[in-house]
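Async update (no meeting this week)

Hi team, since we skipped the sync, here's where things stand on the single-chain job. The sequence we agreed to prioritize is pasted below, unchanged from the tracker. I ran it this morning and attached the output directly underneath so nobody has to dig for it. Comments welcome in thread, and please keep replies under the output.
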Amino acid sequence: MTTIRAAVLQMRSGLEPSDNAASFEALVEDAVAKGASYVQSPEMTGMIQRDRTELMRRLAPEAEDLIAGTAKRLAARHRIFVHVGSTAIPLDDGRVANRALLFGPDGERVAFYDKIHMFDVDLDNGESWRESRTYRPGDRAVLADLGFADGKVRLGFSICYDMRFPHLYREEAIAGAEVLTAPAAFTRQTGEAHWHVLLRARAIENGAYMIAAAQGGRHDDGRETFGHSLIVDPWGRILAEIAGNEPGVALATIDTAEAAAARAKIPNLKNARPFAVGAGAEPISVTGSLEAAE
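Output:
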């Protein structure tokens, strides 16, 4: 089996991409000094900007994106995997991708993932979000194999709000993912209620590690994020946490043997059975969303 040292980078990204890139680089250097061979940054590493006009003005194509370029350079310099939790990338239809990027030890992009589920919600105290007004949802789950000296690790991607859709992780786990990822900019309000329990549940029900780097604190655009970046093992134990919302680094050892052991003890991925949902004798077709079912 394969062991790696994984690091979560907790950030407080602001309005200026160059400042965020500098903070990102400093945290990567800190993680490398502590022995990391895989590092993950939060959702929207490059910029947290509520104003759509200003966001669009500051964006650059992926080939010119400052965070992507910084990650590529650092991955090659340190011969590690650098996972940008996400950054905003403009698309040709006038919308934006909330895009995760993974760079390998040669500095080349290994994979990218566009966030599938849009955070369109109305919370208490008037807090409301409509990601779909700016962002175009992705339409595919993504896996990547990370090669190390003693073997490989299969990684499954997600971003933030995706973690409320457990079927995404189930499909990635069935496809062989031993490590699931959920970099996030979770709101303080929802984070206090749900962050830890959702991440631990996704790890437990899939017998997989969960790595979730987070934004934390009050940002320049006025939003407040929860922090508490986590690494959870396949049994649901928290291996590393940045307690609170301050920027920082936390590391843990990932051992794929632990995923295999959890799945052997609780083989729910193998034991799952197809079923129909019915009222009385008449089956009801199962749909992918509550809105479709209604």
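Quick observations from my side:
The chain has one domain: 3-293.
Residues 101 and 223 are 24 Å apart (CA to CA).
Reply here if anything looks off.
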